[in-house]
Amino acid sequence: MMWSFFSRDSSKDFPYDIGEPVGGFDQYSIWTLHKAKRKTTLEEVSVFVYDIRSGSDTKCELAKASLKRLKTLRHPSILQYLDSLETDKMLYVATEAVDPLGSYFAKLGSDNVQKGLYLAWGIFQITRALSFLNNDGNLRHNNVSAWSVFVNASGEWKLGSLEYVSAADGNPMPPAKIPVTLEVYDSPEKNDQSKLKAATKCSVDMWGLGCLVWEAFNGVLKQRSNLKDIEHIPKSLQSLYCELVGASPSNRPNPADIITRCRKPGGFFKNDLVDTLLFLEEIQIKDKAEKNRFFSGLTTHLDNFPDNVCRHKILPQLITAYEYGDAGSAVLAPMFKLGKLLDEVEYQKRIVPCVVKLFASTDRVTRSRLLQQLDLFIAHLQPQVVNDQIFPQVAHGFLDTNATIREQTVKSIIHLAPKLNYNNLNVEVLRHFARLQARDDQGGIRTNTTVCLGKIAPHLHPQVRQRVLVSAFIRAMRDPFPPARVAGVLALAATQQYFLLSEVANRVLPSLCSLSVDPEKTVRDPAFKTIRGFLGKLEKVSEDPSLRETMEADVHTATPSIGNAAATWAGWAVTAVTAKFYRSQSDSSRPRPPLTGRNLSKPASLEQPSSSSLSTTTSSVTSMTSLEHESNDTSASASDYGNNDWDNENWGEMDTSQDPSSPLAASSNNGALMAANALSEVRDGWDNEEWGSLEEDPQSMLRPKELPNLSSSNTSPTSATANCNNISPPSSHLNNSTHNANWNSDSWADGEFEPLDESGFGNAKLDEARRKREEKKLQRQRELEARRAQRASGPMKLGAKKL
Asked: Where is the composition biased (Polar residues) (predicted)?
């Protein structure tokens, strides 16, 4: 029993399962390198194995010397030691999981930009390790090559193979190496002892660094004469490379000087990847302003960084910086972008808990960035997490006093809807939507609420959908804000498959017909298209009643496909609703300056918009200023609203300057009416879509227009002119107060909305004022006549004037 205890294999006590060896490494080392895993955690590691039985005493001494140095030398760029085990037969050394650089070259991508950045970072790390050994440790490595450098999972280069490390002030003669394949890396002074007098403490290692530089751009070195070929070495590195592989040891630079030279502007080590990784290493000593500036610019550089560096080096640092530092919300954009590199299990473990924690934040900038980037991580969130932990936090945004948060909260429902349960989607969301559509003072938010409702219609319960959609869209068509009316029309067309034909005939078409005389041509055009589409649908059923069942097939279907609707007559509206939100001032990356100008003296029905009705609301600009301080440019021009701006993903804030219903807009009735007229010139975000072939006249399709200037000499370049495309004379314009009579209500009950009253056309306040003036005039005339009659009946008094 005792004998069996001493004779058992002691390697079983080694807490690692040793796997297959790494091919090719044993040709350049006395060790064999194996992939391995920790028995308890299954963490991947590497194990260097030396067979004492088959080796010589010299090799055994080298192996033990290497283990001793590896245990005592600790540096970020030196191979990390984990554990070791020595028996009478074998020597095991466990380190972090690595691959030899000599075999890792084949894994490097072909992207020259990415590869160049990465090689600069790797060479920088080895130069830093040699500076630590030569200058701080007063040691020489004596074995620098592609086979003494190892690459870990995060792409970092680590200096290993410490068998030949010696004191810098000892014998300058380079040691004899085993195996003989390493002799190709020997410096010239080994064969010419006369040069040893000029040797420095770092000359041997600098020769090895030169060999490593050559191998980084050309592959493994086969013979020393190949070092003369510098064709593939970058020009910014060629002069330094020639110094490293120079014949005179005294001319080879110190590694600390190399880092100083190459980190200067234009140097080989001065690039985005090296700057980024060095900043992350020192992030604990950076102030908050530096961190915000760094993280704000990081996202644009990530595409040029290797995936393994991003995933294992940068992403963990970002998560740590947010959770335990003061990095702020600027870290979110790069963190979510890099999250795409993780597999599902790792994403759930590392990113999702961070996301849930972020949604509980009361910081508006953090909430704004989360809502803007929701599409980057929503696919990884489980429905239970969304309903229980995320939606309750998001719902607070519907009641936020900041218009930007309310707008982004509305838009976020597009991504959340597929994962919301019945109560959250069909009760809570619709309750908030009804209030926003009816009472929000921002026209853009009311517009986008309608757009969002059209987009989430396929996810609503059929009974709720049938009860809500028509009422909500009809309310939108009676909104005083023209883009909101356009959104209502397009949403009706896009969701036409959810309406019973009886509902189309009795409710939808009468409401659409009232918009055929809308003051805004941008409203009339889609209204006519939609009317023709619904009429055509009714006409087909009239000709062939058997089609009714087909056309109403999706009304009671739980999950109809909105893609099928795109092939119908309303395909143009589906494209518009599913592709674009209303683009308000908030969608521009720069805030618009207030419009200024003088009031014109023309009659109210003919004059151009006044500055009071078109001036930008200061609260709208201030709300975004409180959230973002990144842009100091407040200039804007008509080109800000050109074709390219509508695809900008920065939603920004609301513009109520042209919303006549906003309490922040001008109080004058004339100003409100002029603002509505001028709004037809502003692109509403719907008119840049393909409208299909429904129209007989293709020229009637909506066209985007530029925002022209006011003719007044004092107006801003972003002022607007009045709309000249009104279908009715100016005196018969639709009165805002009448137009708004039925939309400002807090529910979507059936039958709530009545047809527009034709008698309501005209300006009610102007008529009332005119009537009062006429009454006063008549009263004065009656008083004068009474006085004349009184004077005529009696004698003239002294001092009285005869009339």
From this structure: 633-642, 655-668, 727-747
What whole-number distance in Å separates Cα of residue 676 and Cα of residue 522? 11
Give the confidence band of 669 by pLDDT, cuts at 50, 70, 90: very low
Q: Do the beta carbons of residue 673 and residue 604 sit within 8 Å?
A: yes
Are the C-beta atoms of residues 437 and 450 closer than 8 Å to each other? Answer: yes
pLDDT at residue 607 is higher than 80: no
Q: Which residue has the higher pLDDT, 595 or 460?
A: 460
Q: Residue 529 carries which side chain, given as an amino acid letter?
A: K
Neighbour-count burial of 470, counting CB atoms closer than 10 A to its CB (0-12 exposed, 13-18 middle, 19+ buried): buried
Instruction: Say which residue the tokens 């987009």 belong to.
Output: 455
Chain centroid, CA 323 distance in Å: 20
Q: In terms of C-beta density within 10 A (0-12 exposed, 13-18 middle, 19 or more buried), how is residue 75 classed?
A: middle
Cα separation, 86 vs 66, whole angstroms: 13
CA–CA separation, 4 vs 389, rounded Å? 59
Structure token pair of residue 744: 């400002």
The answer to whether the beta carbons of residues 243 and 252 sit under 8 Å apart is yes
pLDDT at residue 666 is higher than 60: no
pLDDT in tens, 733-759: 334 433 444 444 455 544 333 333 433
Q: What's at 197, amino acid-wise?
A: K
Alpha helix (H) ranges present in 497-570?
A: 501-503, 509-514, 521-543, 547-551, 562-565
Question: What does the alpha-carbon distance between residue 575 and residue 77 come to, in Å, rounded to a whole number?
Answer: 55
* CA distance linking residue 716 with residue 262, whole number of Å: 51
User: Do residues 168 and 227 make contact, with C-beta atoms less than 8 angstroms apart?
Assistant: no
Return the CA Rg of the chain: 39
Residue 495 CA to residue 455 CA, distance in Å, equals 9
Other Cβ atoms closer than 10 A to 221:
19
CA distances from 691 to 493, 497, 498, 530, 686 (A): 12, 18, 21, 11, 10
Helix H or strand E encompassing 54: none
Q: Which is nearest to 752 in space by CA: 741, 739, 742, 737?
A: 742
User: How confident is the prediction for the chain on average, in pLDDT?
Assistant: 77
User: Quick one: DSSP state of residue 653?
Assistant: -
- Tell me which of 230-234, 369-373, 787-791 is least confident: 787-791
